[in-house]
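Let's practice the habit of predicting before peeking. Look at the sequence and jot down your guess about where helices and strands might fall. Then scroll down.
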Amino acid sequence: MDGNGFIAATFSGKNFAQVKGLLNNPHIKLIEVDQRRQLMSAYSDDAGDPMTQKVTPYAVYQSQANQVAFNASAGMKVCIIDSGLDTTNTDFEWNNISGDNDSGTGNWDENGGPHGTHVAGTIGAADNNVGVIGMAPGIDMHLIKVFNDDGWGYSSDLAHAADLCSAAGANIISMSLGGGGANSTESNAFQSFVDAGGLVVAAAGNDGNNVRSYPAGYPSVMMIGANDADNNIADFSQFPSCTTGRGKKVKTDETICVEVTAGGVDTLSTYPAGMATAANMTADGVAFASSAMENPGSVTGSTYYMGTAETTDSGANGNVCVIDLGNISFHDKVANCENSGGIGAVIINNEPGMLYGTLGDTNATSIPAVGATFEDRGALMAASTIAVDIGTSDYGFMSGTSMATPAVSGLAALVWSNHNQCNGSEIREALKATAMDSGAAGKDVYFGYGIVKASAADAYLTANGCAGDGGGEPGGDFTMSANGYKSKGVKKVDLTFNGAAGTHVDVYRDGSMITTTSASLTYTDIISAKGGGSYTYKACDDGSSSCTAEQTVTF
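Done guessing? Here is the structure:
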């Protein structure tokens, strides 16, 4: 029996309806399904080798975490509910780390796969001379291992873990996990943590759809989406609506959808020792970024441009092939290089950014093959020699809202460490108020309020205090009401605006601007489409990105 009075049980051979008969027992208040929860990582591409130098992940720069100093004396602690933390990676301040085991999943400090170790590194990897640096380097962390070998846990595990986080003195709970279906026991546990002044952060999910995942979908939990290094939304990042209900029962609640995003595409962090694959490449002695495709080994040779490598080429003999993308697979390109006598292959992207990939399950090649960025194409083509090395590493790349979530958790701790008179809800509001608007103007279902910015949040709290501007939507009191109805069979929506900065506002329907109208008058949108449907509106100050929260009307 847990301290909050709940127990998880299995009833073999009985369905849920049969089990609910136990409610006749006066000592039982509630029976509900124990929902499954799983880790959220969309895919991973191992690359990079920070084994001999400190490497700062792009999300640190993107979120301004490098512009704010972590106050280690503030006593901040992040509780990570995940798959554990492997002690073989030395890029942590181990004196600041503790943990609990849960649900028979093994010790928290034993290898449960790379997921939990990667998450922990993003939050708090040490600022030393090697490896990566976390958002809040060296922060106190408490690990709770809730996942079994198959990567599954249950909502009751998370409810119990929330109690353990509280008992450990954590300020923040970070969960890169989720699943379908709400559970009141789980929801109540996180609400209790928030009511006590804490902050709970969880991943939106990686299915690229508008399904609401839990625990991120609870109002007490801050839902996090993922963006890439170019400020684009990740194609896998889920985007549930902020609106529930239909007709007159429509309700909009920004706490049940994505609130902010952070870097979650190809993010570099800690791995259990030797579990990641790393690629290193130099051209004429200068280091260039690369991603490991296949085949460990180390080679150095003269550069030979092989075009798109769609046939063998005797000029490649004894050289490192530099290859453009074309009409055949990565595997066949590398095979043609090797069959021509080539000793290594570098395949260059045909668009900005790194080329990630593999040579497939039936790889029959043996020479080291790496991907390279389009931006480095000119330098690689002009080089006389290229050296390629592929081996194991303690650091690797992963992608998912699982990676964005610890970035926000660590950043929240970083900001909070300099304003520890605030509570978790106030830190949550500050992050939203200062996020960089991305995507469609104003708040949207993909980015929420935008990409988190540590320095901006720190300055906001310094200028405005923990309570910010005293209430209202983050960033101001500009609001809009939306009333949908039918008149003689025609769908109409009346929009009324309050708190606009100027005399006119831009009105958006489903992400597209439909008109500019007076801020002091009610605007009626007449919808010509037949049948039912849902329409999402927002208003922005004329020509600006200062916007109201979205309102959805369903017919």
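How did you do? Residues 114 and 271 are 5 Å apart (CA to CA).
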